[in-house]
Amino acid sequence: MNKSLEGNSLRLQTSFKQKVLLILFGLFCFIVLFEIVLRLGGFVYNARQEAQNKVELTSSEIRILCIGESTTALGGTDSYPSQLQEILQQRFPSQKIKVINRGRISKDSWYLLNNLEHDLDRYKPHIVVGMIGINDTSLTPTFLKRTSFLDFLKSLRVVHFFSLLKQHLKHKSVEVFFDKALIQDKGAEGRSLVPKQNVIDSNDILTNESDYYQMVEWLNQLDNQIIILAQFQKKASPEEQINIDAKGKEIQSNRVVALRYIAAYHHTREEDQMALVALSKASALASKDVGVLYEMARVLRSLGKYSQGLNYILQANALLPNNQIIVMEIGRLFELIGNKEEAYKVFQKVMELEGDNPWLYKEVGQWFWKNGYLSDAEAAFNIAIKYPLMDINTFENLIQLVEARGEQAKEKVLKKE
Length: 417
Fold this sequence. Notes:
By secondary structure, this protein is mainly α. It has helices at 2-52, 70-73, 80-91, 109-123, 149-155, 157-184, 209-235, 238-268, 272-285, 290-302, 306-319, 324-337, 340-352, 358-370, 374-384, 392-404, 408-416; strands spanning 62-68, 97-103, 127-131. It is built from 17 helices and three strands. It is elongated and about 85 Å long.
């Protein structure tokens, strides 16, 4: 009897294992077949795209080459190269225009740039439009990276297909959110994912590359939300329009903040031209934002454009007077311009204003000392050393200063401290 039960139990276990293995085998076969179908589909799509991209190099047509990833390649007549072709041809009916769609699915910037020279030789375009970077997951070129099993999985069309499907569903969920929050609820407030506008010093916001890319992704989401809002505006009632306008202002404010933090990140890495691009976009959205004006002044100072920087920081000071960080930047720029008299007045004002940044007092003290204002320098250093995080170098500066002034009693006390 016991042997019979044990035999039945063994058969059930074997049967269960077989079913699991059969399911896994079936799933594997499905993935392989789906991968083959997707690759064949990609081959057919590329062949069709090649046929559409044929150009007559001897003709008088203007050729515009569009390079990018799937955001360029896909969409058919709704893709941006097709829409660009239609718009330009309508605007210039007497001129032959050919927009060439060289979007490559699942490729990154390194692949596209490596093939750019070949595309230039082949199509000889008059204009090149690039929208690239969406598939970039690393700053390291693809051909320099060591291939791992994870990289192999990422290269599969099946994986990319489900990634696109996930993005599509996420995009739809955003539309549903706006549909409910703006149209049905009439007044639901969205959330700001970053601190408020008009924050002055944002150096501590984006501290590493991961933070930077998260901010860039969030900025892209905000740009998409603006597009969705524009679609809702077309069918909104006057009552709904009020809520849409309010949401639009909130999104634009968040875009300004995101651009400013991105600019601050580039500035800390001495990529000031890239910082300037981000700040120019932010300034176009909010020319009176104090944070943008402050960051613009810092970047222009790094680029050696002191007069322009001073103009921006004075605008910031007019909007937010008596801010110690802003006033300090004014003093730096007056010094660099060569107006030491004004710089001295401004640095004296820095001493009068309330603040919690000991490094400003240290910087001001060093400027006073360098320019011969020893009593002012001593006062600045004395404030700086009260902060627990101040470095030993500030104590040494103060000791050297009182020694130079012949104040031996103070020197002894400071050396004990």
